[in-house]
Predict the structure.
Amino acid sequence: MNLGKIKIHDLKRIRTEKGDVYHGIKSTDVGFYGFNEMYFSQIRYNQVKGWKRHNIMIMNLIVPVGNVKFKFTVDGCEYREFSIGDLNYKRITVPPGIWFSFEGLSKENYVVNVSNILHDPEESENIELNSFNL
């Protein structure tokens, strides 16, 4: 697996007088690999969650509230970093086999994962945050 397989997709944010509309993902979008579960993860300001690696799941990560910095690595030697959310509204498609961590950059932060499979605790791995020197 290589980090070049991570894809960033621009998302539409439609501003309206009574409240904005945030596009997420459609079945016709590049990066859509089916839908079995969507879940929300809260990450507090200056807190970091990770490292985690999914072995089967394809993630589509969206931050509709706040701003979150994601770090990705395959082996700890190279990494890619993206910040998405209010300031940079995008969707990140992450194939299986890539380690990731994420950090809350705003007072309130929510990450949405639209995944192609149902959650299975046996399908992913977790290691200590200090496992990679990134």
User: Anything to note?
Assistant: The chain is about 0% helix and 45% strand.
